[in-house]
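Technical note accompanying the year-one report. For the benefit of new consortium partners, we illustrate the data format agreed upon in the data management plan: each record pairs a sequence with a structure-token string. No post-processing was applied to the example shown here.
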Amino acid sequence: MMDGTRSSCINHPGVEATVRCKQCGKPVCNTCVVQGSTGRFCSESCRQKHEAYTQRAQELDGKARGSAFIKLRSILGTLIIIAAALVALGVAGSFMDVPVLSDVVWKIRDILGI
């Protein structure tokens, strides 16, 4: 086995196990292993349980991505980026003479009292 310990198959005590079940961790030999789309398992039951678990996890992940909180966080991030860009333009308009930008910046500074 890969972990350095020898263990025998749960179904064939005299045969060395080559893998462990992805669902329950039981050791199985090449003869007993059940191949699934998500890994190798000791039985059809473990394969089905793991695939059901994986499917449910993907469904929940899809719901979480579509939640209002995630959308709000995205909008807030965009607003922060826009605000930072406006501050950068304001600083640039204060120190450099940009015809259109400087007039706007000075009017905003007058309104804010800075």
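Partners are asked to follow this layout when depositing records. The first strand starts at residue 19 and ends at 20.
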